[in-house]
Records
---
Amino acid sequence: MREPEGVLDARYSSEGTSAHDWSEAEKVLTESELFWISTVRPDGRPHVTPLLAVWHGGALHFGTGPGERKAANLAGNPHVVLTTGTSSWTEGYDVTVEGEAVRVTDDGRLRELAAAWEAKYGPFWHYEVDDGCFRHGPGRALVFAVRPRKVLGFGKGEPFSQTKWE
């Protein structure tokens, strides 16, 4: 699989800046601990909340309890935006991923993801896999994959940049 080619948006970039490599965005997606997910409520209002996510196999994966607002929103509209990066204006690299959240139910794939979660976040986030879900103590989590349709990378501090991958 070849890497996506980034396109610089000069309107939001410092003069003389070039598009960033996909590897830089992928590094942020792999290493970031906290992500913010935006979903849409049934009445059209946005819903934003922090969560943990794992970049694995070319997709961002996250979990949510079946009774949570995210799960209800996704049942009606699977389109999401996941955002991560730093909260600094003068340094760092922020990344947004737009796509469709698709439920992962295959137990074999869920076991791979459970191992990836624990490798990234430590033993507190050890999940068992049961009947197409993650289990953590008495709780159950639905797992979703988001294959990016569009990714934006924002370089902060001089030089500022905005790179788009589709």
---
Amino acid sequence: MNKKVLILGGGESGCGAAVLAKKKGWNVMLSDAKAIAPARKALLDNLGISYEENGHSKDLLNDCDLIIKSPGIPETAPLIKEAISKNISWEDEIEFAARYASGKTIGITGSNGKTTTTLWTYDIFKRAGLDVGLAGNVGKSWAAQLAEGDKDYWVLELSSFQIDGLRKFAPDVAVLCNITDDHLDRYQYKVENYAKSKLSLLEKQKAGQFAIINADDALTQKYLDRALISSTIFEFSVEKQNTAAKLNADNIEFHLTTNSLIMSIHDLALHGKHNVQNAMAAGIAANLLNIRKEAVRESLQQFEGIPHRLEFVASVHGIEFINDSKATNVNSTWWALESADKPVIWIVGGVDKGNDYSSLVPLVQEKVKSIICLGKENHKILEAFSGVIPTIVETASAKQAVETAYQLGKKGECVLLSPACASFDLFENYEDRGNQFKEAVRSL
């Protein structure tokens, strides 16, 4: 082949694309504006892949046939704009990986619940004994895994950033969990732009493919009317009855085939209205690909959930500590507060992504006793809740936040880390934030 591919970004996505491209005969160059982790440099060195770090050289685009960029790099980045001006094609790792995948694909996106739904769907397929891989926005990059070998099925979590980098690829089954105000800083602070990104995954599908959507989600339904979708749509709902999965009293009912499945919500491994919806989406996806219902039922009853999402950490002198660090937007935190059944000491804050906290005010009034800010810039939180909650404390570390919460708490109350914000002001990522929170709780 000997065509030159330029990989922009030396993280999980970029290095994965570089490994796959090298194996498929491309002439690979990887460039990162920042430092590349030592382990990733060792990987590139072992494979003989050229790379540079801490900046892009001026002649980087010379003789370049294709650019694969990491999803965190926007189309407006100077190097991408220069490539466009020179008619050099670009795409993201998911699109590039799809060239070399032949298995059935399930692509799952949404502002909230996509990781849980992705892992739940993957769990169903594993329990059914199928040859299935897990990739995308969770775990190891799809490209890196395809360099090792293909699978019969791939369950992919897809962020809006990853969807933006797609050209032709569309999953055989697409799941849109919901649309809420998230990542608006990337979308000109316009929810319609963000919604368009999410729905474009469905618009890329063809007749004969399937789309699964949330009939209860107002923004999904609003912008669905503006989308051009050729695939067959199946809906799930906890409020409506004419859907592929519905709630009838306390029972979830799946009615896609004559071999329907009915099970009590009390038998679900994960509780809360949002997890009923996640279970419905995963169950429909499995049903559409003819997974035996015994595997679906077993998974819905036994799936263990994911770290950092409403994760019970410990009970210290009767005070529960819950790690919901993965709640990086307002809607995700809304679900966490909605599911609380004890007075809450709420730890919130971080990098604001254009948040509007007004939707949380009624829940906060009803359920929250005290607020602890965990971030460098808390003015929007203080502005939103100063007249609502009498006790608001600012802290600068997970340890300080946990110790303050413990001092404020009483037996029978709950300390909930549900930040509604990104983590990059004080932490490496939401996992680091959650892990530091858990460590601080265990040190009490």
---
Amino acid sequence: MTADDAPPTLHDDRLSAEDLLASPRGRSLVFGLALEQVESFPWTGDEEAPGAEAVVRNLRCLCPIAPTWSAVKEAMSDVVDAAVYWQPPDDDDWGTAEIGEVREALRPFAEMLVSTGLLDAWSKPLDPDDQWALGWDDKELNEVNGRHTGLPAVFDLETGPTDERIEITLTDLYPPLDEDGTRLPWGLDEWLADVLTTGTRYRHDFAKNPYMELSGEWWSTPPDGLWSSTGTWPDGTLIGVELVEDDFGLERARACRLRLRPDARIAEIRTPEDWADLCRRYPLDVTAQRRYVWSETTGRKGRWVIPDWSRVAEEFDGVHVGLAGYLRTAGAVIDVAEGRLGEESETIPTAGNTDDRTASLVAGWHPDTTYWLNNVIEAVTEVAEWHYDSDADRWVRG
């Protein structure tokens, strides 16, 4: 994948049943829709979650029916809500062979979902004319946690089309400084320095005790101190307000429609190979601080890398993980290379490794999110308010 690569046609890039069944998030989507087709399962109510044998037995008793668009969107929201990268997944007690049986039992449901065409548009590349940056109102949550911060400055602006003489900056999307001196998170250079410093500290600890298990950061996103944006569903609802990993119950947002520089270079993460390609060309070893926490969610102990976003920025201005890309990649162990990438070090933990390959993980990305690594935001052309309507159980504008 290079900046000059032409994106594939929509037809070639559509999600297949095999794509869904091969990935954790894809299987979760299909499984959630299958559960909607029955009124009750033996494990409903207060009973414990079932083993694979019970799951397979019940799935085989069902005849797949075509889901509605609203059911698919709701199931996708449930998938994202349940995404975790710091603990074992819900099906942790299923062995590899049993997961294979569940996958085959889900195949008719996956094939039915794909045949509806409802997921076809999920493979589209980034639409530069439909990008919205979000500022969240987390005042109530902060007060619960003992922090007293005001609303981001964007909440002081009138909604609707903006006067381009009014400059809206990235800092407007973040709450103001609080008593503890909280500030806008750092950019790429500061982020890289922190990753390297933290990694060195962890590696020194492991050198003293090779069996030490320390939990560290679990995400693989660029730093928050960058512009990020999302698109909209066909009904106009912002994807980014409905699909949020690690959601703390946010219920109000201001959205800024962005005008991008027309020559912005976009890295499209459509498949695990796209992510692996970035990791091979711009590897950043994070084994020391990710090894334990990612072994919890994947069962794998070994060498881990993520893309060095400070170097990716030399080739690309933005990195887009679309809906299809998210379903194919999020939570899956992505094989990067045999052996090791980058500099060898005796302080990289290896005790108890399950393989000697290098792998990566897409973690913490919200579906259809683009992180902007360079300054390509020309203007904010519109401001809109969104809030969660608990009575209607949906996000509404205004």
